[in-house]
Design goal:
The structure holds two protein chains of two kinds. Chain A is mostly helical. Chain A has eleven helices and no strands. In chain B, 79% of the residues lie in helices and 0% in strands. The longest helix of chain B is centred in the middle third of the chain and has 36 residues. The chains are: A mainly alpha, B mainly alpha.
Amino acid sequence: MIKWTAPLRRPLLRQPLVLAALTWLTLAGLGAGLASLLAPAGPLVADTHRALLPPGPGSPLGTDPLGRDVLARLLWGGRWTLRTGLVALAVAVGLGLPAGLVAGSFGGQIEAVLMRIVDALLAFPSLLLAMAVVALLGPGMGSVAIAVGLAAAPAYSRVARSAVLEVRTQPYVDVARAIGSNEWRILIRHVLPNAAAPLVAFAATQLGWVLLNGAALNFLGLGAPPGTPEWGAMLAEGRGYLRDAPWVSTFPGLTLTLTVLAANLVGNGIQETMRPQ
Amino acid sequence: MVARYVGRRLVQAAFVLWLAVTLAFVAMQLTPGDPAQALLAASGATPDEVTERRTQLGLDDPIPVQYARYLLDLVRGNLGQSWLHGRPVGRMILEQLPPTVELSLAAMVVGVTMGLGLGILAAVRRGTWLDTVATTVAVLGLSTPTYWSGLLAILLLSLQLRWLPATGEGDLRHLVLPALVLGFALSGSIARLVRARVVEVMAEQFVLAARARGLPPWRVLFVHVLRSALAPALTVIALQFGFLLSGAVVTESVFARRGLGKLVVEAILWRDLPVVRGVVVFGALAYVLVNLVADLVHAWLDPRLWEELT
């Protein structure tokens, strides 16, 4: 068994873009985690005397129509947006990975049934599928996380299955089978560790997708209740002030874009290092 | 052999569609709430009227009977009735369809043009700064939410420069900004795909042979490389149809356009589930049909596929 991180770590950190992306993700995570220290007043303190102030001393990224500090709201909003993304990713991987692994390892009827269900789910435009789940569960932040995760799961199971199928053609799998390992042991000891790189790469890409689409549902008003400092919801709230106070919607948009970009770059970076030179 | 392939592909498409439609039915059954009540809620109906409506809608029938009726209705093009407006869902979708189709097609043109341009440029100048720039633009397209790039476009091109109207619809000028924004998002995945395919094909023997014969580079690229690289890319571009429909829903909201997006968002907020289900089922139907056609066209362009797939 190869420790999968070993061939990955060094080439990954040697790519400047990946390094920048990982740094940004760390900063965003820290900002959200330490929001209560960095912006102790919280994201909801309104002060109408300070409404729509441009970026400057006191409020580095300006204030919104209710006089709330945009930077404080962005930091606190990271908690909502990033948590939604992570929960959705957990749902997508939690459903997609076992389905893909089992389909790829055991084949036959199980694979046929699982993959037909995946085909049917993939026939729905993914954001519409997520919207339908929100409609069934009722609007809300939790519904959005679950819905986006469910919508991402079929694609993840496809990737997991093909990663398994590829590893299973390797000679060491035949050897393991020849010395009497059963399918479960082969799956856990040999297939999973060796398929980990594409699985992690696609998970990073999927994180970008769920962040983008989770925030999209919040932007459309299907998730966070009004006033919640969620990045997508903040964008929606700021769009009425685009002409006079563009910072209200521009900074949440920039933060979200950079975060999605970072997740995609990490995914790309891992894929690049996997490519045979 | 051709008939067999087409037949097989048709059966496959019908099966996927049946399964998708069935999943939609099951999901709806699992949701709590009484449709008869929901339909009559606005008018303040008496319990008797609700009971009567239940019978009328066939909600007291066993589930298999309801399921059979649902499938039959779908085959006849009946997508059910809106709980909120009491109108046929199919008609509501058809009314909202033209602006969405208009936006999707325009975005497709922008996305394919930009995607091809960026992808080919990156592949031909592989490893240079041009490749880096083109690839970065492509990843940006994939990562930028249309609901942000849309606002930026409005801010710059509409509010600052006053070149184009910001929101609403009407003439072609209203279509430019939404189409650019959605097309940019689409171009990312197309550019990546095209770059990968072109790089792959440029390493093939026949390209080397064409170069060795002393053909000018543009001729090698356009006649030899692209012809071989782009046929499979076409089917993948067709796969982006789902992305396009999803993206149109959000883009419509940014630019305050009419269309399926507005219909479905309002339906979710009012929990008008038949409308949501109708739009989703319609999306699946459209997706399956587009891909079926793309596969058949691809197989027609590349007859080797008949043999491989049958």
